[in-house]
Here is the input.
Amino acid sequence: MASRGRPRGFDRDLALLRAMNTFWERGYQATSLADLTSAMGIAAPSLYAAFGSKAELFQEAVRLYQRTECAPIEDSMRDAPTAREAVSRLLRQNADAYTAPDTPPGCLVVLGAINCTEESTGARDFLAEQRRADLAALSARLNRGVEDGDVPAGTDVDVLAAFYTSVLYGLSIHARDGMSRAHMQGIVDVALAAWDALAAPPAARPASVLGG
Here is the structure.
């Protein structure tokens, strides 16, 4: 039986990719419907028919970003032979991705909905949820390091994961500000140099790390 209605008349996957890049470059709050329809090459009625609303389009665009931009790095992190190498891959590969010349700088999940008005809190909360999931995934990988024996027992893996996630988010901001890839990799060098002091039970950390 033939389907009813007029054919869509545009490539939905390509339109979604263009929407993702627009949100990535401008952020949710600053991206207008006109920006989206212009980038996607469709009229507003077609956008609503295909994606529902700006908020729904944003969430679908973020999921596309996670599948295409984030998943390969997450897979590399999970497959790393040690927890330290997992953190190294997470930071180094994202530093490269954040400064790639053919995509907007920084990370959509970090920067896409930071400064929002009340009407856009749904987008802000959605990205906060994604970041909490990323933090939980890194904590899980570090806990695996404890089980494997390459992270000392007694290490506060949640704090360790929060520290390296904070470095990661800082790299995203630096990339948006135009910092070079080489400079960002230098920041990663410094962050990884702190691994031995941080990946240890609190009593074993140097006084300087504990703030004493």
